[in-house]
Amino acid sequence: MTTKFLWCGERICEARDNSDNVLARYYAQGERHGSTIAYYAQDQIGSVVATVDPQGQITSRLRYDSYGTLTSSSGTLPDYRYAGLYVHPQSSLYLATYRAYDPKIGRWLSRDPIRETGGINLYAYVTSNPVINIDPKGLDIWIEGPSGSEPSFHQSVNVGNMNGYYDSYSFGMDGHGIEGKVYRDHDPGGRSTATMILGGR
Question: CA Rg, the chain, in Å?
Fold first, then answer.
């Protein structure tokens, strides 16, 4: 059976069969297969470590090594797993927006689309620091933490070139004005302008 995917922006949001029947729907915090709904419980990098049904019952548990190889699991496993990436069922590869990642070798399978802008190792995954960093697009990533320019209780995930153009996803709980916004950097060096609200106030 051939599976076709419907993309909503840069994320798979639906799987369909050859006749365009919906096999699964994917949301930010869960997925639905027919009448079965599974909500995600995620860790610090967005890996799905468990799923629960609408009644709050645990329907699956998952454990990974640092680079995303599934080390133990139980129940009906979700399609989105390690670092919030979709897993291809036949190959067990994780699919980011721009390339595939192999957790067994801890490397991307194709060259970085942004070439050396993301570093000289074109196949490296998250600068070899998968416990903290993520790369949902398969491009370039860095994390700006408490020592950066974010206010207290805030975090931002930045995708792009730190010395050039990037998108910054900022979130936190302090009521600061940038809560829940996405910034598209228009000027190299980090000057940003808000372009979209993700959530929050």
Answer: 18
pLDDT, tens digit, for every residue of 41-91?
999 888 999 999 999 999 999 999 999 999 999 999 999 999 999 999 889
DSSP assignments along 96-145, one per residue:
-SS-EEETTTTEESS--TTGGGG-S-TTBSGGG-TTT---SSSS-EEEE-
Q: What is the pTM of this model?
A: 0.70
Q: How far apart are CA 182 and CA 125, in angstroms?
A: 23
3: left (phi over 0), alpha (psi -120 to 50) or beta: beta
**Per-residue buried b or exposed e for 1-21, using 16+ beta carbons within 10 Å of the residue's own CB:** eeeeeeeeeebbeebeeeeee
User: What does the block give as tokens for 34?
Assistant: 């027919």
